[in-house]
Specification:
Structural class: alpha/beta
Number of strands: 18
CATH superfamily of the largest domain: Medium-chain alcohol dehydrogenases, catalytic domain
């Protein structure tokens, strides 16, 4: 079938993207779903810093690629051997297809799926195939994290999709596939935030603010939010932060002062080794520092090694919320419906596919929290 989609051909093109146009909206050919795959009509797709990191080259991926990984849509066709979905199902996509059979999957650590990671690195679907082709070109285009959400339709592995309630607006549902899974999961699974904890969040994009929502829902009594954009600090207060700190040289001491000597849990979402070092320095003795951000592979982290033992400190990473998407997405949606996770407050812009380059300018400048490409009904 013929589909309009956003293709990234080269990483590292300089902003402003409204002028340089790194994402080209073109007509593509999409092959039918194969065994274990779904054809999904994409109804909304979120713009995430992980997408921006591919555009600016800090998260290297194979090129050319149909970008996008956070989406919601409708199943319109199933390939052979798909038994758990039906035509018309509403689904949210998740960016690590969990095979269900490798050792991490068997251990309940779906985000670490070995075949899923290999497929994402290669730019293929879980089965190793590519379904994108450009008319008149001999080579196939790559999939982004098994999804390629910036297109009218996408073929995805059934293991990259979670069925959701049909009454949930698509542009809200899409956020649960990355921002909410990653942020809320980091707070609840990785940091294990508990009632009465003192928590700090470094970086208030969609994922960081979702982590804040997770900390609020868990009952943290002190929540310090740090960012370089005042409007995001203001929003953090509205969402439950008790203190805000402008990012900069004084941020660590201000966080430590607000938390009585250091936070029990600090969650870093920026994807910068320097900010991660600050987050670690703002964590109390015996506390945990969780990093969600994805810095360039060349960045190195320097921390006092002795503190890990002498202060019984924990430093850990969290990918896709450190949970099981098939279980967590419905649980987080239930919390949203109950008013405990006001995820809709994270959505600041609804845009058309043709406005996507301008959207990434807003994301890069910090003007937007979460934007969604909304496709016509």
């Amino acid at each position: 079938m013929r589909v309009r989609g956003a293709v990234l051909r080269e990483m590292g093109i300089e902003p402003p993207y409204a002028q340089s146009r790194p994402l080209e909206i073109v007509e593509l050919e999409l092959d039918p779903p194969g065994a274990g795959e779904l054809l999904v009509r994409v109804r909304a797709a979120g713009l995430c810093h992980s997408d921006l990191s591919v555009i600016d080259g800090s998260r290297p991926r194979v090129m050319p690629m149909v970008l996008g990984h956070e989406a919601a849509g409708e199943v319109v066709e199933m390939g052979p051997d798909v038994e758990t979905f039906a035509e018309g199902d509403h689904v949210v996509t998740t960016f690590v297809p969990a095979c269900g059979h490798c050792e991490p999957c068997r251990d309940g650590r779906a985000p670490l799926c070995v075949p899923g990671a290999a497929a994402n690195t290669a730019g293929t679907l879980l089965g190793g195939e590519r379904r994108w082709r450009e008319p008149g070109s001999e080579g196939d285009l790559h999939h982004h994290l098994g999804i390629s959400a910036f297109a009218e339709y996408a073929v995805v592995s059934a293991r990259s999709a979670v069925r959701v309630d049909p009454d949930l607006p698509f542009e809200i549902a899409a956020l649960f596939g990355c921002a909410v899974l990653t942020g809320v999961g980091a707070a609840s699974h990785a940091a294990n935030v508990r009632m009465g904890d003192r928590v700090a969040i470094f970086g208030l994009g969609g994922v960081g603010l979702a982590a804040l929502l997770g900390a609020v829902a868990a009952g943290a009594t002190t929540i310090v939010a740090s960012d370089r954009v005042q409007s995001k600090l203001d929003l953090a207060l509205e969402l439950g932060a008790t203190h805000t700190v402008m990012a900069g040289p004084a941020a660590v001491e201000e966080v430590r002062a607000a938390t009585g000597g250091g936070a029990d849990a600090v969650i870093e979402t920026v994807g910068n080794a320097g900010v991660l070092a600050e987050a670690y320095a703002a964590t109390r003795r015996g506390g945990i520092t969780v990093t969600i951000g994805l810095p360039h592979p060349s960045q190195q982290l320097s921390i006092p090694a002795v503190s890990l033992v002498a202060e019984e400190r924990t430093l850990r990473g969290s990918y896709l919320g450190s949970g099981v998407p098939a279980l967590d997405v419905p649980r987080y949606i239930d919390a949203y419906k109950a008013g405990k996770l006001p995820v809709d407050r994270l959505l600041t812009h609804r845009i058309a596919l043709d406005e996507i380059n301008e959207g990434f300018d807003r994301l890069a400048s910090g003007e937007a929290v979460r934007q969604a490409v909304v496709f016509d009904a």
